[in-house]
Amino acid sequence: MKPEFSVIQLMLEATWVVQAVVLLLILASILSWAAIFRKGLLLRRVQRLSDEFERDFWSGGQLNELYQAALQRAPEASPTERIFASGMREFHKLRDRRVTQPDALLDGARRAMRASLQREVDALEANMSFLGSVGSVAPYVGLFGTVWGIMHAFTGIGAMAQVTLAVVAPGIAEALVATAISLFAAIPAVVAYNRFAHDIDRAANRMESFIDEFSNILQRNVAALGQPGAPGASGASMSTATAGPR
């Protein structure tokens, strides 16, 4: 009759060092899975909200109406919408200070949007370093537990007069459990890190493209408002329609 294999029993009989390593790896795995689920939900939400905002933005509405809507739902706005709001806010501040030079208006709006872009990317990258650390460090932590367990097993074997496989196997098995758990913690973290890094890069590129396109729209609107007899000196008639179809 084969003896029943039980990982829990092996861990209960393992040395305290191996037990501590396994507990640390299990904790890291739980935290990394929690971070994976949070990050996945966040990126999907960002994608959905960005799609909704850009659909409204490119429908040809008035910029001020979009700006007021962005201010009202600021906590729930997409990163792209917050970037848009920061550019419009700076643009209006400069206009209120009677800055009329087109270059100064556009440069101020661009700087504000670039600063907002950096904040949004930093927020998207939160917890990414933790996933990277788990993916890179967990195998070495598990290897330490394995080496310690094997060393302890061979130390005990050396004190025995007669050694059989039944005596050696449990000690080796409990040591290898640490390696198995370290891989269980590291592999999902590495896969998630690579996937999320790719998604964040795409989101950042999308926001940078929006900044360039919105800057072109502002440039066209400023040029139109600066013409003699042009209506809407306050910027109320500024529209995304001047950009043409996307």
From TrEMBL:
Family statement drawn from the similarity comment of this UniProt entry:
Belongs to the ExbB/TolQ family.
Give the membrane topology, semicolon-separated if more than one.
Multi-pass membrane protein
Q: Which gene codes for it?
A: tolQ
Q: What is this protein called?
A: Tol-Pal system protein TolQ
- Annotated Gene Ontology cellular component terms: plasma membrane
- Keyword annotations of the record: Cell cycle, Cell division, Cell inner membrane, Cell membrane, Membrane, Transmembrane, Transmembrane helix
- What are the recorded Gene Ontology BP terms? bacteriocin transport; cell division; protein import
Q: Which Pfam families match?
A: MotA_ExbB
Entries under InterPro entries matching the protein:
ExbB/TolQ_transport, MotA_ExbB_proton_chnl, Tol-Pal_TolQ
Q: Where are the transmembrane segments?
A: 16-37, 137-161, 167-193
Source organism, top-level taxon:
Bacteria
This protein's assembly is summarised as: The Tol-Pal system is composed of five core proteins: the inner membrane proteins TolA, TolQ and TolR, the periplasmic protein TolB and the outer membrane protein Pal. They form a network linking the inner and outer membranes and the peptidoglycan layer.
